[in-house]
Amino acid sequence: MLEFPLSRRSVLAGAAVAAVGASLPAVQARAAENSRYRWRNVVIGGTGFITGVLFHPSVRGLAYARTDIGGAYRWDDRKERWTPLLDHIGWDDWNLLGVEAMAVDPAHPDRLYLAVGTYSQPWAGNGAVLRSEDRGASWERTDLAVKLGANEDGRGTGERLLVDPRDSDTLWLGTRHDGLLKSTDRGATWAPVTGFPAAPSATGQGVTLLVAAGRAVYAGWGDGGSAHLFRSLDGGTWEAVPAQPSGAAARVPIRAAYDRHTRELYVTYADAPGPNGQSDGSVHKLHTRSGRWTEVTPAVPDGSADTFGYGGVAVDARRPGTVVVSTNNRWAAVDTLYRSTDGGRSWRSLKDSAVLDVSETPYLKWGEDQPKFGWWIQALAVDPYDSEHIVYGTGATLYGTRDLTHWAPQIRGLEETAVRQLISPPVGAAHLISGCGDIGVLYHDRLTASPSRGMATDPVFGSATGLAQAARRPAYVVRAGFGDHGNGAYSADGGRTWAPFAAQPALAKDAPGPIATNADGTALLWSFVHWDGTKHPAHRSTDNGTTWSEVPSFPKGATPVADPADPAVFYAYDTDTGTLLASTDSGRTFTARATGLPSGDSQFKLVAAPGRSGDLWLSTKWNGLYRSTDGGAGFTKVASCWASYTLGFGKAADGAAYPAIYQVGSTEAITAVYRSDDEARSWVRINDDAHQWGWIGETVTGDPRVYGRVYLATNGRGIQYGEPV
Q: What distances in angstroms separate CA 84 from CA 73, 138, 487, 717, one per listed residue?
């Protein structure tokens, strides 16, 4: 057992503390037999921001994609699906699941490089460079002394990583706040580039792109100053590119692409790095031999109704003078791709003739009759072996075409959802209902296909904040979240269809939080937490959200938990004071039952065991796991683990009298996914080193109908589900 300071293992004041008793050998033996798992994604299809796509220039059908929080992927052309490359990233390295940039070596097709690091904030760890000699099947890692920002403004620019066109052993890496770095040993070691003309700041964008143009290297600069584009013609000295574009529309170089046939470098610009906040932009090309600049902007933002920047740019390797660019942040007229076959003298909008087919991922209609062509379009690529195969990323998917007219998501295998809530109903057609960031609530009628009903509508949510099911009336489900036309809804058919609350508290618009329903669905409790963390009083309804009343005795911002057997009972855990409160009048009033429980921890979760009244489990990040069997009057410290991040229940093992318990926590030195078949006396690890998915502490639940099946929420790799093999 890994030792920790006494404060993390201290005896609780006001709560009974004891070790859980002896194990059950027969149950433990069966648990060990079922510890090997197969892990797969519950299919949704994309849902996150695709920040970069890169076809390999010398291998047909080989491509890579990067995301802001969900790792990188390799395209399998034979199977027509993406293979995740960074699922091995563990809990302690969660910050490395965001990919800032990627690079391939044209001369060595098996080499792949990733610059990883999700945040550049002081609380985040430093970035790293991952290098592979087998297309991402295995990796070597070099930790950097600087921070990267794959989920910050400017994450759709780039690529910021480049193999030098003169020497495959030399790599360049542009950083946000630490200038330009260089490696001469294929990424194993890195050093700052001295003599780079631009000076970085602590808050700017730094190097936004690196691109090879023949034997020269060009670097975009997003930190202000008189120059925004620099070049090195000899692999050593750097200078500002002469006579480059100026003005607000060319303030930040977003992306660049080089046409080797015409020796022209195309650069997209915007007045901000994006993906949000852009209102102006332009497209220019540089003839690298003569130094002549030409503006080739397809459409000029009008500064009022039609504002936008430019994002992606890609050239056709087979057809000289053929180039595609994307608009970005164009909300009024909707973003588009422009294609030119004459070097930018004339353009055609591909959106105008596009036929979109989203039947494979219906959520992309967002509750409307037709899907959008796209938004946040900064990732864009043309297949070097097929001029009519174009792909572009959006804030939710990756669209592709093979004929410049018909477009469909090219997203199989790529799942980037940030998941917040999971319910596995005990009856009904669906084994899973999920509450997600950005795409609201989904009813998973199949685990192997994107939900056929798409997002839950009436109302449509952006991000879900609450999801609950009545334990004794499973057809009744409630949800809460951020929506433009209402923030709460209920379902009477197990989550297939929804009706919006007839009314809602004023707090719901800006601070929708977790919601609960009692065991028979006759009372609702809705807690309110603003996005900045401000906590507000909870409200109660007994008429499906037609009227609401404040509950002053409920701890502000707490998550309400319904007793699964007694409709009169709710629970709440006050994390500020370490107090367990309970209500015996269906949520009208709450009183304290246990005090002296862990407080001030950064993560807690209170869960009620299914089918039992008063059987509560409290998981705490630094203080471990606690259990109460008397409705919260007293708690027992579970001795089998020292950290517990989230907890859930599933169908009991054969011969076991208690449901299977699933946990993300630590029983030894490693944080992992565990299952217990003997009431937490013992645990078996059910994930492995190849399946870790970074930070996975939001929620986990077992399937009440299928022993061993578990659903796991990730922060960027969608919903993972595992089954014994």
A: 4, 12, 34, 9
